[in-house]
Design goal:
It is a single chain. The protein has an 8-stranded mixed β-sheet with strand order 6-5-7-8-12-13-4-14. Helix 14 packs across helix 15. Strand 5 and strand 6 form a beta hairpin. It is of the alpha/beta class and about 475 residues long. It has 2 domains: about 90 residues, Alpha-Beta Plaits (2-Layer Sandwich); about 280 residues, no CATH class. The chain contains 17 helices and 15 strands. The structure holds flavin-adenine dinucleotide. Flavin-adenine dinucleotide (FAD) binds next to helix 5, strand 5, strand 7 and strand 12.
Length: about 475
C-alpha cells in the first residue's frame, strides 16, 4: 500500500508523522487496550469517524496514514475510557441513540427512522445549488445558520488542497469556505477529529455528518456534555457506504495518472448527477469513467472499495440527525430523473423541523412538502442494502465467528433469494480485499470496454420503468371501470 500513500494526508493537523502505531512502539508504558476505542483491538470494526481523536481529553490519539487512530506517546493516555465508550465502531445501541436524539426509547426498526416531515428541496442560491451534490440543501441550511449568526462555524469536509486525493474535515466560517465543502466525497473522512479545534476555540457549530459520525457524536455527548452544548444541530447525509481512501490513487493509476498529476478530485464533478473526475494540474477536468457517477461509478466502487465496517452498518439514512438529506432519485416512466439538482430532506427532530421551515420562510430553500406522498417514503435500493443485506451479513458473520458490531436490533426475515443476494454482494466485497484483482476489475469497468455494460444497464432500467408505468396505467383503468 505504501506506493498509494506517498505522503501524509492532512497537513499533519490531526495526524501522526511518521506512520506509527501503538502496537509497534517499544515504549515501556503499557496501555490496557480494552480501555481504548475498538481500533486498538480490532481495526476491522473501526468506522474511522475520528470520534476518539476529537474527544480525547489529553490529545493522546492521532491518526495514521490509513486514518486509523494511534497513540504515538502512550504516556499521554490516562486510560480514562472515554474513547472506548464513545466509539461508534464496536457497538450501536439503537434504543440508547433514540433516547439521546428523541428523548424516548421507541426505536423504529425500519430504514428511514423517525420522520416528522419530508420535503423535496433545493437552494435558492444558484451557486450553492449547482455546486451541491444534489440541491445544495445541506450547504444552504448551514449557510442560513451562519449568516443569521446562529452558529460561529460549520463542521464540514473538503478535498485536501495539498493532497487532493484525500478528504479532510474543517470548520467553515464564511460563504466562500462553505462553497469549498460542497459535493459528496465518497471517501472515508475522520470528520469528528475536528472536535479538538471546536473544544479549543469555543463557540457554536452546525455539523454535516454521515451516520457513523453522528453515532459518534451522540455517544460522545454523554462523555463530554460541554461538546454537546457546542453543537447546534446535525444535518445528516444518507449513506450507502464510504469508500476506502486508496480508491482515488488506484483509479488514477488505471488512467496512467499519479496523485502528483492532479490539483483537485471531484466525486461528482460537472453537470448533475455528476461524474468522477480528476482536475489536472493545468486545470483540465479528466473524467475517470464513461457514465454518470451513479450508472457505472459509485455503484461499481461500493462493491469493491467499501470498508468492512461500512458493510456491517445498518444506518443508511442518518437516523440520529436533526435533518437527513438524500439525493432525490425519483424517475419518470421513461426512467429519467424527475428532480435534477434537488434533494430529499427528512426533518426528524423539532429542531430539524424548525430549521427547515425557517430556511424556507427566509427564502434560503425552496421546498415541496411530500410527507404524505408514498413515492418519497424510502430509497428502495438503499433499504435493501442497509435494511436487509447488512443485517443478514452481520448475523451470518457472527455465526461464523467473524467480528461484527453489536446491535440491539433483530435480524430481519429473509427469503432464500434474498439470502443468496447478500452472499453474492459479500463475495464481491471479498474480491475487493485483493488489490491486484480489484485493480483489474476496476480498470475494466471504468474503461471503454465496459461501455456496452453501461448501455445494457440503462436499457434494463428503461424497460423496468416502462413496465411499471404500464402496470400503473392498467391498475388505474381497472379502478375506473369498477
Ligand atoms: C459517503 C457518502 C455516501 C452517500 N450515499 C448516499 C446514498 O446512498 N443515497 C443518497 O441519497 N445520498 C447519499 N449520500 C448523500 C448525497 O450524496 C448528498 O451528499 C446529499 O444528497 C446532500 O446533497 P446537497 O447538495 O444537499 O449537499 P451539498 O450542499 O453538496 O453539501 C454536501 C455536504 O456533505 C458533506 N460531506 C461530503 N462528503 C462527506 C464525507 N465523506 N463525510 C462527511 N461529510 C461529507 C460536505 O462537507 C458538505 O457539508 C452520500 C454521501 C456520502 C458522502
Amino acid at each position: 500500500m505504501a506506493d498509494f500513500f506517498p505522503s501524509l494526508p492532512l497537513n499533519g493537523k490531526y495526524f501522526h508523522t511518521p506512520f506509527n502505531h501503538y502496537n509497534t512502539m517499544t515504549e515501556p508504558v503499557k496501555l490496557d487496550l480494552s480501555k481504548l476505542s475498538i481500533a486498538f483491538t480490532d481495526r476491522s470494526l473501526c468506522a474511522r469517524s475520528g470520534t476518539c481523536v476529537g474527544l480525547c481529553p489529553t490529545g493522546a490519539i492521532e491518526l495514521d496514514d490509513e486514518l486509523y487512530p494511534v497513540i504515538p506517546d502512550p504516556s499521554k493516555c490516562t486510560e480514562c475510557g472515554m474513547c472506548a465508550r464513545a466509539c461508534p465502531g464496536g457497538e450501536v445501541d439503537y434504543e440508547d441513540l433514540t433516547e439521546k436524539t428523541f428523548g424516548h426509547r421507541n426505536d423504529l426498526d425500519n430504514f428511514d427512522g423517525h420522520i416528522q416531515e419530508t420535503y423535496v428541496a433545493h437552494s435558492t442560491d444558484e451557486q450553492l445549488r449547482l455546486s451541491g451534490a444534489g440541491g445544495g440543501v445541506i450547504t444552504a441550511l448551514l449557510w442560513d445558520l451562519l449568516k443569521h449568526g446562529e452558529v460561529d462555524g460549520c463542521i464540514v469536509t473538503r478535498m485536501n488542497p495539498e493532497k487532493p486525493w484525500m478528504g479532510e474535515p474543517f470548520i467553515a466560517r464564511t460563504y466562500e469556505e462553505l462553497l469549498t465543502s460542497q459535493g459528496s466525497k465518497y471517501s472515508t473522512i475522520p470528520l469528528n477529529a475536528v472536535w479538538q479545534e471546536v473544544r479549543e476555540k469555543g463557540g457554536k457549530y452546525a455539523y454535516a455528518a454521515l451516520p457513523c459520525q453522528a453515532h459518534g457524536f451522540r455517544k460522545a455527548v454523554a462523555e463530554d456534555p460541554e461538546l454537546g452544548k457546542q453543537i447546534h444541530s446535525i444535518v445528516g447525509l444518507f449513506c450507502g457506504g464510504a469508500l476506502e481512501p486508496y480508491l482515488v490513487p488506484e483509479l488514477l493509476k488505471t488512467k496512467g495518472l499519479h496523485t502528483d498529476d492532479i490539483k483537485d478530485f471531484q466525486f461528482r464533478g460537472g453537470e448533475w448527477p455528476g461524474q468522477i473526475r480528476a482536475i489536472l494540474k493545468d486545470g483540465t477536468p479528466r473524467p475517470l469513467h464513461y457514465s454518470n457517477y451513479k450508472d457505472g461509478g459509485y455503484n461499481y466502487f461500493i462493491g469493491l472499495y467499501m470498508p468492512k465496517r461500512c458493510t456491517t452498518c445498518l444506518d443508511g439514512s442518518c437516523e440520529f440527525s436533526d435533518l437527513s438529506v438524500s439525493d432525490a432519485w425519483t424517475r419518470d416512466t421513461q426512467g429519467k430523473y424527475i428532480f435534477k439538482n434537488r434533494s430529499r430532506v427528512i426533518a426528524r427532530t423539532d429542531l430539524g423541523v424548525s430549521m427547515l421551515h425557517r430556511a424556507i420562510e427566509r427564502g434560503t430553500l425552496v421546498g415541496e412538502d411530500v410527507t404524505k406522498d408514498p413515492n418519497y417514503r424510502t430509497q428502495k435500493m438503499q433499504t435493501q442494502r442497509k435494511g436487509l443485506n447488512a443485517p443478514l451479513r452481520v448475523a451470518r458473520w457472527k455465526e461464523k465467528g467473524i467480528a461484527v458490531p453489536i446491535y440491539d436490533r433483530p435480524t430481519p426475515q429473509a427469503s432464500a433469494k434474498e439470502k443468496r443476494t447478500e452472499r453474492m454482494v459479500s463475495a464481491c466485497l471479498a474480491m475487493g480485499q485483493t488489490k491486484w484483482l480489484r485493480y483489474r476489475i476496476i480498470k475494466f469497468l471504468t474503461g471503454r470496454g465496459a461501455i456496452p455494460l453501461i448501455w445494457l444497464r440503462q436499457g434494463l432500467k428503461k424497460r423496468k420503468y416502462a413496465k411499471r408505468a404500464k402496470a400503473a396505467a392498467r391498475a388505474k383503468a381497472a379502478t375506473k371501470t369498477s
